[in-house]
Amino acid sequence: MKWLVTGASGFVGQALVARLAADPEHTVRAGSRSSGSALADGVARVQVPPLDAAGDWRAVLQGVDVVVHLAARVHVMQDRAQDPLAEFRRVNVQGSLALARQALQAGVARFVFVSSVKVHGEATEPGRPFHADDTAHPQDAYGQSKLEAETGLRELARGSSSMQWVIVRPPLVYGPGVRANFRALARAAASGWPLPLGAVHNRRSFVALDNLVDLLVLCGTHSAAANQAFLVSDGCDLSTTELLQRLARAQGRQARLWPVPVAVLEWGARLTGRHAMLQRLCGNLQLDIAKTRALLGWAPPLAVDEALRRMVAASGQAGAAPK
Is the whole-model pTM more than 0.90? Predict the structure, then answer.
């Protein structure tokens, strides 16, 4: 089976390409606009066009059976575009649908679109997780663009019996090479400095990189995945307090957490204009993956603590002295 992975030089893309390359039943084209890191033996790096309405993908789609579309304009905390929604639509909607349309014309059998949990919203009520077939309620331009791309993909494939679609909506992904907020949280957990997050009893879903990659491969091959949308997580929701404790333990440390009431944290966040940051630390965001388990017979192959240990080992942080 021949695969095309877009965004192959990215965090998830590199791991997915390596996983596919290790299986002799698959050949993979790593689609990227940059030279990126070294690839596994047998992997062909292909230069791909810009992800917009004018992109010409015909050459890289020849002979491809499965496309996994990871490339996107990603969500950032402080977007400097004059019109962020227009930019997200140009790349994530128009660019993705141009690729999907040409994949259909090229005879691609399955198009796996990696969307985002942000299609559902930013937070869940306690004990009421998102389900894959819930009505979508995106709250920002990025989530809106992903929803519009999903809708366009369904409509494009509706009139065709030749190309199946699969949509996967992950939450925050962590693993070897993770950057940004999760990496900062790992460092803070092992720093030895006291953190005022010892009384946060929220529930949040995360997904280890290896678990996400495992599901993406399955979605490219499993007959029951055709024309379905799935949520993915580790199947073990954590509070921020628990996450910090596990992150510290993975690094051979013990987190120093002060049990400051969340109401006090909220008061401080309002004074400092950091309410959005507090929501990510103290709010709930749970995903129910029962559909993914039942329809595909899938279970996360990697437990949370082992996934955190591998992430730390890859970064060389285990046992690092506090700074």
Answer: yes
